[in-house]
Amino acid sequence: MFFFLPGGMGISFLKQYADSGLDLPVVGPAFSFDQGILQAVGDAAMGVKNTSQWNKDIDNAANAAFVEAFQAEYGRLPSLYASQGYDTANLLLSAMEKADVSDPEAFRAALKEADFDSTRGDFAFDSNNHPVQDIYVREVIKEGEVYTNKIIGTALEDHSNVYVDDCKM
Amino acid sequence: MTAILFIEQVLNGLQFGVMLFLMAAGLTLVFGVMGLINLAHGSLYMVGAFAAAAVAGATGSFLLALVAALAAAAAAGALVELVVIRRLYDRDHLDQVLATFALILIFSEGTRWVFGSFPLFLDIPDYLSGPVTLPGGIEYPLYRLTIILTGLVIAAGLFWLISRTRLGVRIRAGESDREMIAALGVDISKLYTMVFALGAALAGLAGAMVGAIQSVQVGMGEPVLILAFVVIVIGGIGSIKGALIGAILVGLTDTLGGLLLPEVFKLFMDTSAASTTGSALASMLIYILMACVLIWKPQGLFGGQA
Amino acid sequence: MSRERLINAALLLGLAAVPLYAWATDEPFTITLATRVAILALAGVGLNIALGLGGLVSLGHAAFFGIGGYAMGILASHAQSSTPLMEAPFLIEGTKSMPVIWITALAASALAALLIGALSLRTSGVYFIMITLAFGQMFYFFAISWPAYGGEDGLSIYIRNDFPGLNTLDPIQFFGICFALLALALWLNARLAHAPFGLALNAARQNAQRVETMGLSPFRLRLTAFVISGAITGLAGALFADLNRFVSPTMFSWQMSGEIMVFIILGGVGRLYGPVAGAALFITLEHVLGGLSEFWHIYLGALLLGVVLFARGGVIGLLAGRKVAHD
Q1: Which of A8, A37, A44 sits opposite B214 (nearest CB)?
Q2: Does B215 touch chain A (CB under 8 A)?
Q3: Alpha-carbon B227 to chain mean position
Q4: pLDDT tens digits for A105-139?
Q5: Chain centroid offset of residue B215 CA
Q6: Of B25, B303, B259, which is closest to residue B161 (Cα–Cα)?
């Protein structure tokens, strides 16, 4: 059974689903199982598989540094939203080093180069400005007292998007 | 769509209605007796839920959590009444709107400051979880039945309070003529604080009970607040009976509307257009209902003087 | 010159001076902030005609704000994608011309206000508040569920619309447009308040029965005020959508209605420049307090509470004295 309900709605759904007695396996995108809401769902989310472009255990230097620094600063594990924010900030910084913000054409080109160390590993934009990245399958586990996700496989490698050939760009 | 689905949704509508009644009862009493529009009522709902989550997390007992919700919300209500609301009785509705709007901001950010920005964990206790088989072979969650029952018991309790006790007499008298009962020697300030705290406690209880099946997060009270206002307007301000009937009406309309309207539209539209139009209309339905009630009966179904 | 007139002049000059200074010192963000103040003040001026003059507490005015916004969004998005709005019976193409969009926004909001007002004005007091809220919510949920124009995701307009002769993407020029419209609306409000219509409306607010015995119909007076009020708020909505180049159902939400009302109450209900003072104060506080603490909403709430409890008549009432004996 697939669902996509982020935030509070996801919490409600998972708790009620667990209480309903149905035992179809649940699958969803990472937004319904992100670090922020997992604690509020508790055991009801255990073992659920979800897909994402990022998880805290992706093995590269940038990600390891990010997770460690985040935990030191905020006392909790980062969510995928945090990783996206961090990547975006780094992307902007990398573009700012190459071009001036007041020159839109040059800045756009600098952004497109995406020359920064992403927490996702290799990062590039495709021709229609959608990222090309790996999509992982994660499972909800419990590490000590904290509910979090663990990568159990790779769903798609270097995946762009379905519309890249149809797009005018 | 089967009969089982329909009956389950009727029960869901009842549960929703009962929860709205808990919110609306407090709101209608405060408005009826004190003439005060209280936008911060949703925040008291949230306070109850957070108190319950905190106590349940610390002690593991759901019952203690509910008691904590009642106590915390009542205390918050009494405090707010003593410090802020007291000064607003003589002011017009606009000032009350602004002041209670400011209270929403303070409560929401205050809760976020104390508990953090992430939703809290609150779950149904094991002895209330799982489905129950009703006559007819229908399986329905035990917890939701508990909510319906609790709400009806509280409704009965409120009716008894209003019609059979001295406090109830004073409340009813206060609704008719505030100045008169002050002249007759009733301590108005204490009465007001009690009514406000009672309303707050009911809201807190609703928040705690619903928080267990939904989520406990900052701002959870706002959507419910608006619906509670719709309920008391439909039912008639100041009337507990109106609040109950209005709440059940709103709960059933919203739930069944969401179920039936797309089905109705499917009769003469294709499935995807039917579900889009149906769900669009379903979400507007309670407001259409309220507008119709007001146009037909401008004081609400059981409303007396405004 | 009375104190209130001086304060009004100071407000208007201040609102013009701040972005001009920001333009000279190359701070485009401040200009955008000032533009927001101007647009929200315009929305407040609209509501104030119904609320301050007419005594109609409409908690659903965001309906008109949203209608104006979506009028802009729909017309501009059709122009963007070069597809016509309607082909039969009339050919209606999209447009990106601001004056046309404004006229459409004004007309659409006025029509909506006519319908909503005709139904709602049969009630009074808190029931009027609630029924206007209901209509606002109806529009909100409708906008969320209508997939053609983005639904919940909203509608993005990539380039600001055109105004003949000006480069609207330049922040100071767009501010100039909004400021001019605000000044026009304030002038209209002032003329209305002192015209026979405004005086009758004010009388109806205080004692409707008396007005009826004079042979005037309070219902018609209020409906007219409601329509004018809705139209102006609709125009503000179109400008707001243009500022953000984004329209979304939240423009219809009750929180938006509440915010517009908060500006007016903050500044002073029934005061001509109440919305301007209120909007300027609120946006400035949002900006300044937001930089001070993560939990700045608490301070904002406390300040608002303080204004309500201790500064009757809003900020202008506090500064200018109780010249207007308003409720």
Answers
A1: A8
A2: yes
A3: 8
A4: 888 888 888 888 888 888 888 888 888 888 889 99
A5: 16
A6: B25
In terms of C-beta density within 10 A (0-12 exposed, 13-18 middle, 19 or more buried), how is residue C214 classed? exposed
**Closest approach of chain B CAs to the CA of C78, in angstroms?**
22
Q: Note the pTM of the prediction, 2 decimals.
A: 0.86
The pLDDT of residue C222 is above 90: yes
Domain count of the fold of chain B: 1
Its domain, for residue B212, covers 9-221
Across B89-119, b (16+ Cβ under 10 Å) vs e yields: eebebbbbbbbbbbbbbbbbbbbbeebeebb
User: Cβ A20–B141 below 8 Å, yes or no?
Assistant: yes
Q: One-letter amino acid identity for B216?
A: V
**Distances from the Cα of C116 to the Cα of B81, B174, C110, C133, angstroms:** 35, 34, 10, 11
Residue of B nearest to C125 (CA): B306
Q: Which residues are registered as beta bridge partners of A148?
A: A141
Domain ranges of chain A: 7-159
Would you tell me how many other CB atoms lie within 10 Å of the CB of residue C191? 11
> Which of A9, A15, A37 has the CB atom closest to B213's CB atom?
A15
- B12 interface with A at CB cutoff 8 Å: no
Task: Inform me whether the C-beta atom of residue C115 falls under 8 Å from chain B C-beta atoms.
Answer: no
For residue range A23-32, list pLDDT tens digits in order: 788 888 888 8
Residue position matching structure tokens 């301000």: B237
Q: If contacts are CB pairs under 8 Å, which of residues 39-98 in chain C contact chain B? A: 51, 57, 59
Q: Which residues contact B134 (CB under 8 A, 6 or more apart)?
A: B140
When divided into structural domains, chain C yields a total of: 1
Q: Do chains C and A touch (3 or more CB pairs under 8 A)?
A: no
Of the two residues B44 and A19, the one the predictor is more confident about is B44
Cross-chain Cβ contact B112/C295 below 8 Å: yes
Question: Is residue B240 domain-resident?
Answer: no
Question: Is the Cβ–Cβ distance between B135 and B145 less than 8 Å?
Answer: no
Cα separation of C200 and C207, whole Å?
Answer: 10
CB contact under 8 A, B129 and A19: yes
Q: Domain for residue B304, yes or no?
A: no
Between CA B102 and CA C282 the distance in angstroms is: 12
Chains C and B contact (Cβ–Cβ under 8 Å for 3 or more pairs): yes
- Asked whether residue C327 is domain-assigned, the answer is no
Query: Cα separations (Å) of A151 from A34, B178, B189, C46?
Result: 13, 66, 61, 55
Could you tell me if residue C325 is inside a domain?
no
Rounded-to-integer distance, Cα B168 and Cα B175, Å: 11
Which subunits sit against C, judged by 3+ Cβ pairs under 8 A?
B
Domain that holds residue C19: 3-320
How remote is the C-alpha of C30 from its chain's centroid? Answer: 20
Question: Is it true that domain A7-159 has CATH number 3.30.310?
Answer: no
Interchain CB distance below 8 Å, B130 and A19: yes
CA distances to B38, B41, B99, B198, C166 from B28, in Å: 10, 11, 18, 12, 54
A20-24, B118-122, C287-291: range with lowest mean pLDDT: A20-24
Chains B and A touch each other (3 or more Cβ pairs < 8 A)? yes
